[in-house]
Each structure stands twice: as structure tokens, then as C-alpha cells.
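In response to reviewer comment 3 from the previous cycle, which asked for concrete evidence that the modeling workflow produces usable outputs, we include below a single protein chain processed end to end. The sequence was submitted unchanged, and the resulting C-alpha cells are shown without manual editing.
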Amino acid sequence: MRCMIVIPARMASTRFPAKPLCDLLGKPMIQWVYERAVASGVGDRVVVATPDSEILERCAEFGAEGVITRGDHPSGTDRLAEVALSFEADVYVNVQGDEPLIEPASIAACARPLLEPAADKVDLASVYSPCSDEELDNRAVVKVVTDLEGFALYFSRHAIPYPRNDRPIPVKKHVGIYAYRRPTLLDFAKWEPTPLERAESLEQLRFLEHGRRMILSEGKGSELAVDTPEQAEEVRAILAKRFG
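The workflow returned the following C-alpha cells.
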């Protein structure tokens, strides 16, 4: 099984322009993500996919492979699908370029179900972690419910399952990294956004609405993704404690 980790990244961002290149303890953020992806040990190849020459140049400086993609993709998944057209692999892992604290073990846990002998039962895979009480009502924290085998039944910004009775099971928080079989990834780029996807503003629902089977493995969520300059400052403080 050939596995490629792809890190989509772009300079354009409404809340934080050029954030992949923001400095975190002397390294651009994209370098932290790349190094964590390499440390996962699951990718035969790790590439940064970007429409921006500035990101490509910085990647070359620290020894990362970068590929130029179109600038009009509506999502990181669409960017991965373009990469899959030019670089053939059996499995593609999507690690977002704004996750400098992502755990390498979570990346490995995401990819593993598609690299095992029974992978033909699985179209794509992702990761969950326990949802804390403080996160239950946070609509920015996506929750997932699974069947008895661990396959996703539904994703929502609401706390699911609804606690009509005392919660018999803990709420699962979705960690937004994915591993795709090649045909599933290429199909995604051909589909129009689906009704539930539009209702929740969650693109992973497009796979479920098309009947694709997504298995969830337990992992660890990153402490903080970077969407704003203020969050970048928080990440600097975390990294300084860890590595400073």
C-alpha cells in the first residue's frame, strides 16, 4: 500500500492572511505541520499542496516537497483530489496546514485502517477524541456518532447523541484529519455539495450522503488550530513550554 500525506496550505485567509508562514519559534507554521506528518511514519511521501509560490519557496528551504495546485479550490479536500490526479497512491492522508500541534500518533491512527488487510471495507477514515464538558455546546467543535464497528453515522455541531436519558456513552469530538482511498477522493471532487453538508457546513457529510463508509479511530486532538494571530500567539506559548 502506497500512502501519501498531503498538507494543503494557502496564503489567502480572511482572518489571518499568510498564516502558513507565520513564525513559531523561528520556524514557519507549515514546517511544524510537515515535521509532525513525517514523524507519524505512515507516509511514503509527504507533500505540501499550495497555490502560492511563497509557500513553495519556504518549503524548499527546509527540505519539504511542495506541489503547486489551482487557486480556486473550495476546500482542502478538493486540493488533495488535484494532487491525486498527478501523484498516484493507494491512500492519501489530509493533514491541515494550520495544525502545528497535531499529534503524529493521531495521523498514524487515521491512516492505519486503510493500510490493513481488511481495508476494502473502508472508503475513508478519520479520528475522534473525547469531548470535554466545556466543548459540548461549542458549535466550532464537531461531534460524531458511530455504529458498533466504529463507522461514522453522523457528524454535527450539536452534542450528539442527545441526552434524553443519562448519557450511556461519552460524546466523541471529531478530529479533522482524513485518510482516503484514491477512488473515494477523486469522486468527492465530482460531487456537488449535499443537503446535510450545507445544513451543518461540514463537508465530511458529503461522503456519508453518498453512502461511503468512514471509520473512526481514537486519537488525540491538537490543543489548538491556528485561525487568528491571537491563536498563533497561544501556540507560540505552548511550543515554548515544550521546546523552549
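The chain has a mean pLDDT of 94. We consider this sufficient to address the reviewer's concern, and the full set will be provided in the supplementary archive.
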